[in-house]
Protein: allantoinase
Amino acid sequence: MEPADLLKPLLRGWSLPLLVFTVAYTLVYLPFVEKGLEEGCSLLPETHFVLYSKRVVTPNGVVPAAVEVEGERIISVVKRSEAPKQRDGGPRVLDYSNAVIMPGLIDVHVHLNEPGRTEWEGFLTGTQAAAAGGVTALVDMPLNSFPTTTSKDTLLLKLEAAKGKLFVDVGFWGGLVPENVANLTVMDELLNAGALGLKSFMCPSGINDFPHTTAEDIKAALPVLARYGRPMLVHAEVVQPSPEERSLQPGEPSENSRLYSRYHGTRPLSWERTAVQQLTEVAKDTAVGGPAEGAHIHVVHLSDPEESLHLIKEAKAAGSSMSVETSPHYLAFAAEEIPDGETQFKCNPPIRHADYRELLWKALQAGDIDMISTDHSPSAPEMKLLEEGDFLKAWGGISSLQFVLPVTWTYGASRGITLEQLVKWWSTGPSKLANFPRKGSLEFGKDADIVIWDPEASFILDSNYPIFHKHKQVTPYAGQTLSGKVIATFARGHEVFREGYHAPRPCGTPLLPVH
Ligand SMILES: NC(=O)N[C@H]1NC(=O)NC1=O
Ligand SMILES: [Zn+2]
Ligand SMILES: [Zn+2]
Structure:
């Protein structure tokens, strides 16, 4: 008998539908179950559910709507009246009443520092902080881990270290340092291995094993990035002689180092302006027909809404492919309000004066600044020298990942920002930069990355507030009264956070480039 003859009796009668069912079950349903909806990944047992509220931030405005989720994806966003009703066998319906349902935040600038400096911040603590703050995807910076992420091998170390530790999805920027500019193959391999783009500093980075690059180095890297269509992110400060520094004799102890103004004077706006000026020159190569068409330059954490931003606006208008972010600390704080010795506020570039804060808000609202990201960069608390309060010697870096939704909302609402702007700055804009086509909006087919929060609920960020980030004493937001409380966070369909509780298992994945 031929082997095909053996199948004949089976294919008669009910056998055929059974076969079709088995194949469909194996191909369509099982991958869902195996990929993401495993035991412990979600606080919600259901994999098919509907989220209702009166304020859903959709691409077509803020409307009463229902977001239907099945497995990892959004399968419909419809008017409340058209949504499936709770019935036996149907999807579970969760009614959030007046709370806001919007896309999860995407933070493209986070220093997770693992492997090597996990005591500063790591994958488990950092991604739990993200989940608690409504951040459903983030991109890790190539420093301050040890080793830094500047080659294929070091990226593989990152991926290995991240295994089983991600509560939300995490992508990785690679580092551009003089060494890989000198050997373009290393850069090629790094991009091939999964770096979403490259990041470099134009001034010392604070970490010896991440040396800074010049504008010429960046120019040399752009044609390689152009081949992959990936961005170059730049910390834009170039060291300039500063009047205050010049007045000190060599070897003389720095005076008044507990005064914020003393620190601010050592890193004036001219550093940022000079860097941006050099970058806008280089960015001309990214224009259509230029030698690096397809590449893109993104200026990170802009603090200067005047000349530097003006240069970026001009470059964009002239056809260069550029974008710019600012960070919550420049939008919340002002130099003249920072108390002596409070080094939690130390970052680079420094927090500027109040009039600049207002101009940054205006620039965001005008669309001249494309997005917001945290630059979450905690260190071990000792390095902040909180007792000494020495601004010149303390680590420069702000810890904020968990609080940026209420921070942006609290400081923004008083300046008239809308929920749609919040989504533009924290979700749509970043999803474009990192090229996450499945993330950033509440639409059919997108990843079910969703935050549900109450803009009207205010709270004091004190020790009673659940703190999931690594060192609660190093955040400058401690003690603040903020409004906007995260109720629940869904990451690819998993309810990863609800009212102070995390899902037991980390089920996020690395976000590799989309080809
Ligand atoms: N190395 C590092 O994380 N530096 C960051 N800290 C900061 O305040 N600005 C930065 O670029
Ligand atoms: Zn930086
Ligand atoms: Zn940074």
